[in-house]
From TrEMBL:
Residues 1-63 are annotated as: Disordered. PANTHER family: EXPRESSED PROTEIN-RELATED, PIR2-LIKE HELICAL DOMAIN-CONTAINING PROTEIN. Residues 81-196 form the PIR2-like helical domain. Residues 304-402 form the DUF3615 domain. It comes from Triticum aestivum. InterPro entries: DUF3615, PIR2-like_helical. This is Uncharacterized protein. Residues 1-11 have a biased composition (Basic residues). Signal peptide: none annotated.
Length: 472
């Protein structure tokens, strides 16, 4: 054991961030104060869409010959929408994010509506979690959600894009799907601007247009969402914008105010769907996955805390976990972990979290705990570029990697715009979030897909101990 650790110590060179060379900042940062002093290294924060118009934000460059390629446009939009979700997750206070809103963002927080994409995600999430609160049961209790998978983020990005396309095509039927992609690309996935770009004569989206979007995007409550966006939100849009325009994390009281204004009265009974029939076999599959996810989340939490401790020693900057946004384990001469996570400065209430990448070797401490010498690299990164790692690409893990620091699995040819160059990110249902935040009263689609994907065993055995291991 000791010999292996000494060899690793020699091989894994820890890159020392230098205070003289701080990471680059976005080309158009947020207007608010970052909360960092002159002496501190200023890591990149996810730019706020609420404080500045989208046309002023950094746009991922692309060769002109790729501009008209629909596949490329779609990939650029998916990567852009993915950053919207990372920003939305960074704006929510941790306690509410972990207990409630992580599920809302990834299941119902679609980015179409009358506001900016990030604000639409937040408003649609808060509305859904207020109107259709999850009531966990003893059988399906997970606790706080500190980790979400890159597959979950990729899936909701795909669904939002499909909703944007469907809404635009409904309002502008003369457009082709490729035309819709072009207008969404020009507008940076802002529906209102895409509509203005596509036609000067089209008015605001109707309830029918939003219903089409919600259905194409597989929203769990499409009729209720369409009614909310078209009838309820316009009445409180000004007040909602004022609450969301701050360049900091939202507070719990602000979320409560948003909840009260977005759901002023109980919904009509006919907007609710009948509860699913959860058989004993489906229940055993869900509970098995929940137990596996608890183990995975604890591993990720411990890795992040160790990486941030190492980072604090190197830089003097102290951060704590906000949310794990993706992790991958791969073998390359030995086993390595790659992980993305959001971390917020300690003792700095309201300051927005920073997006990080870390690489670690397999934990060698007692009880498989990570030690600081297991951390190969920990650094803030830009959340936009996907790719740069052959190991993660091979497993279709949509993680962000640093482009200016060496890491295992790195690629010499880094395509910052589209990452892989191919679109393999349509992840199937169900995903991790569908198990750990299962709602026995509403999640009919999850039950149907579990029955299809995990059929009962022919021998009648309802034991499902190891099902969680596959496709986490």
């Amino acid at each position: 054991m000791g010999g292996r650790r000494r060899r690793r110590r020699c091989r894994a060179k820890i890159e020392q961030p230098s205070a003289d060379t701080p990471p680059k900042t976005p080309s158009s940062g947020s207007s608010g104060s970052s909360g960092l002093t002159e002496e501190r290294v200023a890591p990149r924060k996810i730019p706020s869409s609420s404080s500045k118009p989208y046309e002023e934000e950094e746009v991922i460059s692309a060769p002109e010959r790729k501009r008209t390629d629909p596949c490329t446009l779609r990939l650029v939009l998916l990567n852009l929408i993915r950053t919207f979700y990372l920003e939305a997750l960074s704006r929510l206070p941790p306690a509410r994010l972990w207990s409630t809103h992580a599920r809302g963002v990834l299941v119902a927080g679609h980015c179409y509506g009358p506001l900016s994409p990030v604000d639409n995600i937040l408003v649609n999430t808060i509305w859904h979690d207020t109107a259709f609160p999850r009531r966990p049961t003893v059988d399906f209790h997970f606790g706080d959600v500190l980790e979400i998978s890159p597959e979950c983020i990729a899936r909701i990005a795909h669904r939002s894009l499909e909703g944007l396309i469907a809404c635009l095509l409904h309002l502008c039927p003369s457009l082709s799907r490729d035309d819709a992609l072009c207008h969404l690309h020009l507008s940076k996935a802002d529906l209102s601007r895409a509509i203005a770009s596509a036609s000067d004569s089209v008015s605001a989206p109707t309830q029918a247009a939003f219903l089409k979007a919600a259905e194409e995007a597989h929203h769990p409550m499409p009729q209720a969402l369409a009614l909310f966006i078209s009838s309820v939100l316009p009445k409180v849009e000004r007040d909602a914008r004022m609450l969301l325009c701050v360049n900091r994390a939202l507070t719990a009281p602000e979320l409560d105010r948003l909840s009260d204004m977005l759901v002023p009265s109980p919904l009509l009974e006919d907007l609710y769907t009948p509860p699913p029939l959860v058989t004993s076999w489906v229940a055993s599959v869900i509970k098995s996955r929940i137990e596996g996810c608890k183990y995975s989340q604890e591993t990720s939490r411990q890795l992040v805390e160790t990486a941030l401790s190492k980072y604090a020693q190197q830089t003097g900057q102290h951060y704590e976990l906000h949310l794990v946004c993706g992790i991958n384990l791969f073998i390359q001469s030995e086993a390595f972990w790659h992980i993305n996570f959001l971390a917020r400065p300690k003792d700095a209430a309201g300051e927005l979290p920073i997006y990080f990448f870390a690489e670690a070797t397999v934990a060698m401490g007692e009880d498989d705990e990570f030690l600081e010498e297991d951390i190969v690299l920990c650094c803030p990164i830009k959340p936009a570029g996907i790719g740069g790692c052959g190991a993660c690409t091979a497993q279709y893990k949509k993680l962000n990697h640093p482009i200016d620091k060496e890491h295992h699995g790195g690629l010499d040819d880094y395509d910052e715009e589209i990452g892989n160059g191919e679109d393999h990110w349509d992840y199937k249902f169900p995903q991790l979030v569908d198990f750990i935040m299962f709602d026995a009263e509403k999640d009919c689609a999850t039950v149907r897909h579990i029955e299809k994907r995990f059929p009962p065993r022919p021998d009648g055995d309802e034991s499902a101990e190891n099902l969680w291991i596959t496709e986490m």
